[in-house]
Every structure is written in C-alpha cells, then in structure tokens.
Amino acid sequence: MEATKLRRVDFVFRPDNTSIDVLRKTLKRDADDIILELIDSGLKGRGGAGFLTGLKWKLAKEAAGDIKYVICNADEGEPGTFKDREILDRVPRRVLTGMAICAHTIGAKEGFIYLRAEYKFLAHKLKAVMAEMNEEFKKLGLDFSVSLRYGSGAYVCGEETALIDSMEGRRGEPRNKPPFPVTAGYLNKPTVVNNVETFVNCCIIANIGADEYKKFGTDNSRGFKLFSVSGDCSKEGVFELELGMTLADFVEEFGDGDTKAVQVGGASGFCVPRKKFKDTIIGFEGIPTGGSMKIFNSTRSMYNVLHNYLEFFEEESCGQCTPCRVGCQQLIKGIEAVKRKEKPAGYLDELVKLAKVMKVASKCGLGQSVGNAFVSIVENFREEIVY
Amino acid sequence: MANTEMFIRDLADKHGRRRESLMPILQEVIDARRYVDDEVMVNIAKELDLSAAEVYGTASFYSFIETEEVGHYVIRICKTIVCDMKGKDAIIEAIENTLKIKLGQTTPDKKFTFKTTNCLGWCHKGPAMLINDDVYSELTPEKAIEIIESYMHK
Ligand SMILES: Cc1cc2nc3c(=O)[nH]c(=O)nc-3n(C[C@H](O)[C@H](O)[C@H](O)COP(=O)(O)O)c2cc1C
Ligand code: SF4
Q1: For range A195-206, the mean pLDDT
Q2: Total tally of structural domains belonging to chain A
Q3: Statement to judge: residues A116 and A47 lie in one domain
C-alpha cells in the first residue's frame, strides 16, 4: 500500500455560513442517491471504529418503523482528543447540516447532540445556533429538529449503546450487539449515531461530491481527518491532514526532534516506537485513529504512560463484565509488582496473555482495547516497565 | 423539605416524567445544588414513578453526578498523561496549599471540593482544570492560586 505524503488541507473549518445552501441543494436529492454517493466516497466513521457511514445510513433507512433518530456523538472522552470541541465551537452549522442531511436520508424527525459534561461551557452558544438552524430546517420544509443532551463524566458513554442507555436515563452500560442502533437504538427505534466530524464530512461530500472527496487519502482511508496533536511537540493543537501518511512524516512535522514513541488513537490505541515510524501508516490500512496523537520524547517514562492509561481504564470501566473490570485492576497491580521486583520480569508475559484474553472476552470496545496500549507498550518498552 | 418536593416537581414539569427525563433532571439538580442527596432522589423517584434504587443506580454511575455532599465550587483537575507531563502535580500542590485541604476533600466552609478527573480535552493547553462548568487551561501554580483566590472572594 502506497502511503500519501503529509499534506495539510482545509475543509472542515471553512466558514459554515454557507452550509444552509448545501442543505437546500441536498434536500432536493433522493435518499438512495445520497446514500450511494456517501458509500462511493468511502467515508468511514471518524469516532474511532471506522464503520462505512453510507452503509450505516442505508441500514437505518431500510429499518422498519416510522420513528427514527439521529444522534451526534459529542462525548469525545478519548484521552488526547479535542477536535470535536473545536468543530462544535467553530463550525456548528456544518454539524447540524450533516445531521439534517442524515434525517432527510433515513426519515428522522428528531435529532440529539450528546455533549460531554466537560464541554458544557459550549452549550450556550450551541443552543443559539441550534435554535437558528431548527428554524432554517422548517423554512426549507424539513420536519426535523435537534436538541441538546449532556453526558455526566463517563468515558464509556461515548460507546454508542452506552450513550443511548444514558439518554434513556440508565447507567451507561454498553449493550450486547446485535441488535445494532441502526435497527434498535434510542427508545428501541432505528437510530444513526455518528461522530461530530463524520457529520461534517457528510456535509462536505454533499457539497463537493464523492469524486472530489475521493481524490484525498488512500483506497482504504478516503478523505482527510482532524488530528488532535499533543505531548512533546514542535506544535500542538488540531490539524487537518490527508489520510494515509506515514508516522515518520507525521513525527517529522510535529515532533520535537527527540521523539521516542507516539501513542496513536489515545489510551485505547497503539503505542508505536521510533523504529516503526517509517512502516506505520496512519489510516485503516495501518493504525486508525479517532484523531488522538500523543508524542513522547526520550525523557518520558513509558511505565508512567502505561500506568496512567491503566488507571484511566480501571476508573472508566463500567464494571459490567468480569474480564474488563477485574482485568484492568490486575494489569495495574501486575506492572506495579514487577516494578517493585515482587514479581519477576517474566510475569509481564502472563499479563500480556491476560490483556489478550480481555480483547476477546470483553463485551465492549473499552475492555477490548485495553490490550492495545498494554501489549504495544510492554512489547516495545519492556525494559522501562521492569527497571 | 417541602422546598425539595416543589423543586423536583418543577423540574419534572419542565423535563417530563418519562425515564428519558431522568438525566436532564439529575443534571439540573447538580447545576442548582452541586449534589443529589437522598431526599432529592426519593422525590425524583416519586415524580417519575421509579424505584429510589433505580434513581440511585443511575445517579451513582456518573462521576459528575455527586451523591455525597460537595462544595459550592467543584474543582476538577485533569490527571491524564499529557496534563501529568505538563506539571499537574505542582498545580495540585499549589491548590492544596491555598485551600488547606487535600485532593478529595471539601473545605470546612463547604465552598470548595477538590478532585481529579480524566482527560478534559485540553492536552494541547495543559495542565487544565474545571471549576463547575468553567475551564481553565495552561495553568501555572501562580495562575492556579490566582484563580482559586478569585473564587474565594466570590
Ligand atoms: C469506550 C468507547 C468510547 C467511545 N467514545 C466515543 C466518542 O467519544 N465519540 C465518538 O464519536 N465515538 C466514540 N466511540 C465509538 C462509538 O461507539 C461509535 O462507534 C461512533 O460514535 C460511531 O460514529 P462514527 O461511525 O461516525 O465514528 C466510543 C467507543 C467506545 C467503545
Ligand atoms: S468491556 Fe468494560 S466497559 Fe465494556 S461492558 Fe465490559 S466492563 Fe463495561
């Protein structure tokens, strides 16, 4: 697979005052036509899991029932991610337009933005824009309105079924899938849950067309993506880049010259050591990311990094299933014991086995991805964990 | 307290009495009172026709829905890795010294509670903290003390 060259682009943050024109034009189109174009564009969800957005909309459209919902996932809890906040702050009309296109496509009348409690300071401005856009929808003859719901400080509520549980007034405990939200989501009705950035991309594709969109990225990772860059960097913040570059190019651009490792995809992502930068592609053919890119230089202890992630998971596990609840605790205790020399270094191999069991035996993506950081850090920085 | 009964009834009138109304009601109690006590939960249960255990079960799941008494201002400092790398420990120490309490505690006058939280999404501008809904980023110990002092005078 050919990697792309690192290229900065500017689509998402263009002024959003023309997005109503995009909506006007799109509402005239047939739903199947919109779905075909979206599938053709190759757009995959920007929230992490990377499901084909066009296919998700198609499933929701075809699901039986008159009442359907559109939910924008603005829970953004993955450590190191802050691009959704930037979008909601700077181009909220784009997001709402994407949601309205979705509503028109699947036949939904009601939509929600599920905003994490930590971003509540955005609510005032966001509500005003929502009121304005709901009016615009009415004027355009679209029977659809969006309202705001809040999270309350639980990372797991970013998982779509936990998010729905939370909106229904329950503990945010992920459900077994299937059924998927596209057939049985909010209040058991067909529901599309998409990430904030995904909706913006839908709006962009409706505007520029799939052919233009497809010119960016690679076969498996179409388009461009926002990256939340932090850590030991030459520059930090949110950057929009074409998908498919190598990590080496990324580090060249954003590193501080002494980069030891990059954590791609947040705590639930993978840690890549320097020797693998050249061969790692950022995208679905390599390591996908919801956008979190954390750069560590040689002064950082990877034991501290791993310990910090494990504490995060231990606290945020909903506790519903044993492999995740007990596994997180045991992984922390385990590396602490190795560090204190109470256990031999070989004990790490047992812990790696446990992390791999968690991957197959946990119910949701939280427990399933603890092993990503664990195995990639322990395998690449074993001596830092032991000594 | 009749007061609480009325308060919850008003919230139920506003948000509805369905199960989906539960989170918006709990969240508005937090906005107004900073925590939900047993009396509040029993009243919500009555209004929404749920068991008190279900209300407690939901409320206690969420780290931003306090079920124990907290201060008027809840300070939550981010402890996730990048804020950690950028010196959150020094900020914690400065705030502990200013408020004369330790992490996890509430000041005797019930004005402040000091806690840690997971990633706030300000890694590029760490260390960061929330005071109720307001964000403070790019903290230094001096800046943190100044902010806390300004709240002390509120
Ligand atoms: C523990 C966990 C947390 C998640 N947090 C988020 C989140 O904060 N935002 C988000 O968009 N997706 C999050 N997801 C992914 C969602 O479950 C879902 O796949 C996504 O919202 C779908 O939208 P997309 O296809 O547009 O990416 C999370 C998944 C898991 C397992
Ligand atoms: S894997 Fe963890 S977070 Fe997910 S359902 Fe199981 S216990 Fe809950």
Answers
A1: 98
A2: 3
A3: yes
Among A297, A320, A348, residue at a domain's last position: A297
Q: Does one domain contain both A192 and A50? A: yes
Q: Give the domain extent around A158.
A: 19-213
- Encode pLDDT of B33-81 as tens digits: 999 999 999 999 999 999 999 999 999 999 999 999 999 999 999 999 9
Residue B117 to residue A153, Cβ atoms within 8 A:
yes
* pLDDT value of position A58: 98
A250 near A5, Cβ under 8 Å?
no
Q: What is the mean pLDDT of residues B95-121?
A: 98
| Mean pLDDT of the residues in chain B | 97
Nearest to A141 by CA among A113, A100, A183: A100
Report yes or no: B31 at the A interface, CB cutoff 8 Å.
no
Contact assignment for A152 to B62 by CB distance below 8 Å: yes
Residues A260 and A141 in one domain: no
Average pLDDT over residues A366-372: 97
Residue A7 lies in a domain: no
Q: Which two tokens stand for residue A213?
A: 């969109």
Contact of B53 with chain A, judged by CB distance below 8 Å, is answered with: no
> Is residue A13, in this structure, part of any structural domain at all?
no
For the segment A46-56, the average pLDDT, to the nearest whole number, is: 94
CATH number, position A62: 3.40.50.11540
ipTM for this model = 0.97
Does A153 contact B134 at a Cβ distance shorter than 8 Å? no
Q: Model confidence at B1, in pLDDT bands (50, 70, 90)?
A: low
- Which pLDDT score is estimated for A3? 83
Same domain for A44 and A151, yes or no, is: yes
User: Would A101 be classed as within a structural domain?
Assistant: yes
Q: Are B121 and A153 inside 8 Å of each other by CB?
A: no
Residue A16's contacts (CB-CB under 8 Å, 6 or more residues apart) are: A90, A91, A92, A93, A94, A97
Contact B149, B102 (CB under 8 A): no
Write the pLDDT tens digit of every residue in A275-295: 999 999 999 989 988 999 999
Structure token pair of residue A96:
């709402």
Nearest ligand 2 atom to alpha carbon A319: 7
Strand partners, A272: A262
For B13-43, give one letter per residue: b (16+ CB within 10 A) or e: eebebebbbbbbbbbbbbeebbbbeeebbbb
Residue whose CA lies nearest to ligand 2 atom number 8? A318
A320, A328, A359, A370, best to mutate for ligand 2 pocket (most atoms within 8 Å of CB): A320
Rounded CA separation A83/A251 (Å): 19
* DSSP single-letter state for residue A233: B
User: At which of A268, A297, A326 does a domain end?
Assistant: A297
**Residue A196 half-sphere exposure, CB side, CA atoms within 13 Å?**
27
Spatial distance between the Cα atoms of A34 and A58, rounded to a whole number of angstroms: 10
State the average pLDDT for chain A: 97
pLDDT of residue B2: 67
Domains of chain B are 2-61 (1.10.10), 73-152 (3.40.30.10)
